[in-house]
Amino acid sequence: MGADPGSAYDGDALRAKYLAERDKRLRREGDAQYIEASGDFAGFVADPYVEPGFAREAVTEEVEVLIVGGGMGGLQTAAELVRRGIQDFRIVEQAGDFGGTWYWNRYPGVRCDIEAYIYMPFLEEVPSVPSERYATGAEIFAHCQAIGRHFGLYEKSLFQTRVERMTWDGDAARWLVETDRGDRIAARFVTVSQGPLAKVKLPGIPGIRDFKGRMFHSARWDYAYTGGDAGGGLDKLADKRVGVIGTGATAVQIVPRVAEHAKRLFVFQRTPSSIDIRANSPTDVAWLHGQGAGWQRRRMDNFLGIISGKPVPEILVDDHWGDLFLRMGELMHQAHAAGETPDPHAAMQRSDYEKMEAIRARVAEQVDDPDLAERLKPWYNFLCKRPLFSDEFLPAFNRPNVTLVDTDGRGVERITETGIVANGEEYPLDLIILATGFDVGAPPHKVGGYEVVGRDGRTLAERWDGGLRTLHGTQLSGFPNFHIVGGTQQGTTAFNFTHVLRMQAEHAAEIIAHCRAGGRTALEPAPEAEERWHELLEAKHVDHEHFYEECTPGFLNNEGKFRDMPTFVGATYGGGPLEYEQLLTAWRAGDMHRDLVAPPGAARNDAEPRRAAG
């Protein structure tokens, strides 16, 4: 695609620039450049929000359903069970409260970049009113707590508790669950909900343990050191030199708040992010209360339709997430009107070039120093990295106390006792903030740190690494009554991830209710059902390989090694999340009876749930 006569860019030149910028950042070790926050690094993920020394008596009980995880996935699963009259369940959560990512991420400036009216579940029945269109993390955390109270979930939960092992007992037809608190729980059904923003990722920078100042990951913010709270007011940084490693979704929110208070702030950048308009606004409460029944689901579907490139009768969620796809649709319409046969790939790429040109022009408008602005401009296709939105990040670099340390794709060289070395220069620091994100594509057992042993003695880890076959990305043969909520591998994903969780929570609850109502002790997918799903995945597969191989490295393309170990994006259902949800609904109404079978030796007359003991 050469120079477009209708625009100011040269497509060939842009593509060459994108590839050159990608090549600067390719690293032989790929995702291995990061290290796990365990062992010697476990201190990076200790819970700073609970009082130390928590202890309780171990629990021994039998329940109908065990829900592992109290974030958005676990909360929605529990709520769906309650809606179906299933009350005999237990939630096990590592943190000190509900909330998941919104419990852990309390850094200054934290808020959701998805509209609150579609992101925060159950707004039609839980009495929360977001104060803004894009809610703060504190409001979302409070909403999670409100969900817990509304559905009576607190009394059913074990907090500050980590599952260590789950083993299927075929004779008892129960999952035998062990926790780090000595609990022994027998559960007929298990659902696991460990989300993509749960497993902290640390940079494997040489010398990371040598630093003598304060260092923490953004998901474990130390307000005792910085002062203030999530709204800002970091007064204890007034005499501090602070370094932030990263310029992704977290850093974009942190940097403006730290810049207001730190004596000096150094932002260490490997790859600039695309920063679009946020344009936040207060909630019109009268408008919100005036919406008719079912408004939230309609709005959620509308947003997913727009960003999936599906035709929508109207635009309910009019924000900058949809720009790329709406422009593509406009180009396709123009081609049809001119009597031409539109090329969707060409239309998408043209829309992408136009979008990224506008993103780069915005950098030049908001950053006073032209040379600095050039170093903050992103050179890649729009969907190579998660799009970001902020009206404060770029202007923060106009402050005299803020310095961008652009490593031109190389990254930080090492950490010393006194600071960070980048571009051959050492920057003395008092505080290092690791805004380095999460292991987004990790399977649930890896995120949760537990072992799952199925009925044939095979572990979930072995299944995951040995030619994975699932049904809908949520169930596996050999693992009866076991449900993944948040399954992206062979499932689906979307920028509004709580919508995906809603789909799969409803799916799990419906299957559990079906099993109980049918008098079945246990059900699991037949291998033939998994094979049919695999064939459908193949038929619906959208080839992302070429696109992501040309992207700058990041979590979406397995740090430049997309073909070697595809992450969740390349392994999802190709028909998109809305079609995936419709497929699940149709399957439950039809083929569920065919595809779910009793494991060997399972009885049939156990419709009544056993009561919890203790």
Give a short summary of the structure.
With 614 residues, this protein is of the alpha/beta class. It is built from 20 helices and 22 strands. Helix 2 packs parallel to helix 16.
Helix content: 25-40%
Mean pLDDT: 92
Unreliable parts: 1-6, 566-570, 605-614
The shape is globular
Give the N-to-C terminal Cα separation.
69 Å
Structural class: alpha/beta
Number of helices: 20
What is the percentage of strand-forming residues? 5-15%
Query: What's the Cα radius of gyration?
Result: 25 Å
Count all strands and give the number. Answer: 22
* Largest sheet composition: 8 strands, mixed
Give an overview in words.
It is built from 20 helices and 22 strands. By secondary structure, the chain is of the alpha/beta class. Strands 2, 3, 4, 5, 6, 7, 19 and 20 form an eight-stranded mixed beta sheet that branches. It has a five-stranded parallel beta sheet with strand order 9-18-10-11-14, with helices on one face. It starts with 10 loop residues before the first helix and ends in a 17-residue tail after the last strand. Residues 1-6, 566-570 and 605-614 have low confidence and may be disordered.
Per-chain topology:
Layout: H1 11-25, E1 34-36, E2 60-68, H2 72-83, E3 89-92, H3 101-104, H4 116-119, H5 137-150, E4 157-158, E5 163-169, E6 174-179, E7 184-192, E8 201-203, E9 214-217, H6 223-226, E10 241-245, H7 249-259, E11 264-269, E12 275-276, H8 285-289, H9 295-307, H10 323-337, H11 344-366, H12 370-375, E13 388-389, H13 393-396, E14 402-406, E15 414-415, E16 419-422, E17 425-428, E18 431-434, H14 444-448, E19 451-453, H15 460-465, E20 482-484, H16 497-517, E21 524-525, H17 527-540, H18 545-549, H19 577-589, H20 592-595, E22 596-597
Parallel strand pairs: 2-3, 2-7, 3-4, 5-19, 7-20, 9-18, 10-11, 10-18, 11-14, 12-13
Antiparallel strand pairs: 1-8, 5-6, 6-7, 15-16, 16-17, 21-22
